[in-house]
Specification:
This protein has 288 residues and is α/β, with parallel strands linked by helices. The radius of gyration is 17 Å and the shape is globular. 28% of the residues lie in helices and 18% in strands. The longest helix is centred in the C-terminal third of the chain and has 16 residues.
Length: 288
């Protein structure tokens, strides 16, 4: 009799929105807490964050990654927040091996954990007791590269690694509407719905969204969109594909939608009351 294969650790895409969500209890952060409770404690987390967007593919390889406060105009309490999770250099080496023949550099001292990572992990794993490694987004590569690399990273889930992507499907800070609250503009909803159709039914084709009529408005810069491609690659390599875990919007032009792979026990929630942006600072200068 063959041994029963243990279930893979889930993979997640989190629409992280405003870093002030780190300090708040709202419909979105409560959903993230629930995800962490259902997932349990993985061996480590590999994070693809919108905020490490550089001209190379690299992975953090330090034992003690620093907490990076990469934003402007927020209250001092957010700048004082620390997320002291350890790193896991051995996982960095595994990522280098899995990505072959593509090259991945080992970052021993330059980066750390940016707010796209710790604003979410503060709710998934509030004790900061799970090792964390970040994978950069290579800005010089086409969309298909990221989908294909995501598919390769799927193998890490058999080794107890939670692959977490953090960005926003729709992210246009120049079109923020301060009066919009939890609503999304019609164009934002159209694009978010198109992304959902692909994630649930044809995740391997996620790069085709670049031809969508609302792509320019929804994705004025690719940094927050590309993390979704990694989860799509994992979903395409997994029977059953992806599930929508959270739906919702913030300030008209931010989608807070979250997806999971191998996450059917988490269930679906409607998010609400995302943290607002600070007053007096142009949204496109906050680096959210």
């Amino acid at each position: 009799m063959s041994a029963v294969r243990p279930p893979q650790i889930p993979a997640l895409f989190i629409g992280h929105g405003n870093p002030m969500n780190t300090l708040e209890d709202n419909g979105f952060t409560n959903a993230w807490k629930h995800m962490g409770e259902v997932v349990g404690k993985p061996r480590s987390v590999l994070v693809v964050s919108a905020h490490w967007y550089i001209g190379a593919t690299a992975v953090t390889a330090m034992a003690r990654p620093r907490t990076i406060h990469d934003f402007y105009g927020f209250p001092q309490a957010l700048s004082d927040f620390e997320y002291p999770a350890p790193g896991l250099p051995e996982l960095a080496a595994e990522v280098v091996d899995i990505a072959k023949p593509d090259w991945v550099g080992l970052d021993h001292d330059q980066w750390g954990l940016d707010h796209g990572t710790w604003s979410v992990l503060a709710h998934l794993f509030p004790k900061a007791d799970v090792p964390v490694v970040q994978l950069s987004i290579n800005a010089q590569k086409p969309m298909d590269y990221h989908v294909e690399l995501g598919a390769r990273l799927n193998a890490l889930r058999d080794r107890g690694i939670l692959v977490l992507s953090s960005g926003n499907v729709v992210h246009n800070l120049r079109r923020i509407d301060w009066r919009a609250g939890d609503t999304g503009e019609v164009w934002a909803q159209r694009f978010d719905d198109a992304a959902m159709d692909l994630m649930l039914n044809r995740p391997g084709d996620i790069a085709s969204l670049a031809a969508h009529a609302d792509f320019g408005a929804a994705v004025p810069t690719p940094d927050h969109f590309v993390p979704l491609l990694y989860t799509a690659g994992i979903a395409a390599a997994t029977p059953g594909g992806a599930e929508a875990l959270v739906r919702g919007y913030s300030l008209g032009s931010l989608s807070m939608t979250c997806y999971g792979v191998s996450c059917k026990t988490i269930g679906h929630q409607q998010g609400h009351d995302a943290a607002p942006l600070p007053l007096g600072v142009p949204p496109d200068q906050t680096n959210i």
